[in-house]
Amino acid sequence: MLLGLICFISLIFFSFLFISSFTHKKEILSINEEIVLQNGDLIFRRGRSLASYFVLANDKSSHYSHVGIIYKRNKQPFVIHVVPGESKGKPDYVKMEKITGFLTQKKASRYAICRLKNSSLEKGKQASETAEIYYKKKLIFDNNYDIKTENLFCTELVWKAYKIAGIDLIRGKFDEVNFPGFRKPMIMPGSLLNSNYIKLLYSSD
After folding, report:
1. Per residue in 3-30, pLDDT tens?
2. How far apart are the first and last CA of the chain?
3. What residue spans of the chain are helical by DSSP H?
4. For labeling, which of 105, 135, 155, 158 is most exposed (least CB within 10 Å)?
5. Cα separations (Å) of 61 from 64, 152, 153?
6. In degrees rounded to 5, what are phi and psi of residue 185?
7. pTM score, two decimals?
8. How many Å is the Cα radius of gyration of the chain?
9. Which residue from 59, 77, 34 is spatially nearest to 193, judged by alpha carbons?
10. How far apart are CA 187 and CA 202, in angstroms?
11. What are 148-191's pLDDT values in tens digits?
12. Pairing relationship of beta strands 110-116 and 66-73 according to DSSP bridges
């Protein structure tokens, strides 16, 4: 059963790569410059990796497989996030990169930007500063998906950063992943996207 599932996901993944090689010519997704990003904004993307398709197969509540948090340095917005397989043989540390790097066509096919509802900018600022601490501490991607350890997976980074700022985006409700041998509390991108605490600012759909 496990082998069959892996083969099925792999078939979808490589089929998509074959099609996308003909349909995606631009290097970077079109970025909506009318939105003035703020500290703590969430940016979601739909990835193209095999790991992304695993997330999408288990998360029916959104079209996105990855999320990062906006941190502004010298008024320039950056994305702080953690993701496996992008470090070319090096540890997958929490990274801070420009939005253009986060949204290259190689990494993303669509994206969305969200912001806290009815809340002061201070909460978003606090969350973004916590994310920056994770970046400076060089925390790494948690391949064991264990929320009790210091290492992080992408949604955990966002959730913990906001929880420290006093907002539990998922209200203590974790997701269940329907995968043989995997029984751990998870946070799917859809749980953050559909949180009662945030609102959608923009979707590239």
Report:
1. 443 444 444 444 444 334 333 445 768 7
2. 34
3. 2-23, 50-58, 99-102, 121-136, 154-164, 189-193
4. 105
5. 9, 22, 19
6. -65, 125
7. 0.84
8. 16
9. 59
10. 22
11. 999 999 999 999 999 999 999 999 999 987 666 677 889 999 99
12. unpaired
